[in-house]
Design brief:
By secondary structure, this protein is α+β, with helices and mostly antiparallel strands. It is built from two helices and three strands; from the N terminus they run αβββα.
């Protein structure tokens, strides 16, 4: 099973992630996100903040009215 397929599975009501942000010597920011709630999913890395936010938007459950 590929990593992308793992994230498309139904998600629990509560999810916890560790997000790391750091600035490289060249001035560019880097980001990683990894689940810390017991799920065995891989850490993901991003070189653009927009990509990190897009990932979280597709991974986190939508708001329900």
């Amino acid at each position: 099973m590929q990593a992308n397929e793992q994230y498309s599975q139904p998600q629990p009501k509560r999810q916890a992630y560790l997000v790391r942000c750091w600035q490289e010597i060249d001035g560019h920011w880097r980001y990683t996100v990894e689940p810390v709630d017991g799920r065995s999913l891989p850490r993901r890395g991003f070189s653009q903040l927009a990509d990190l936010l897009a990932f979280l938007q597709t991974t986190l459950p939508g708001e329900s009215s």
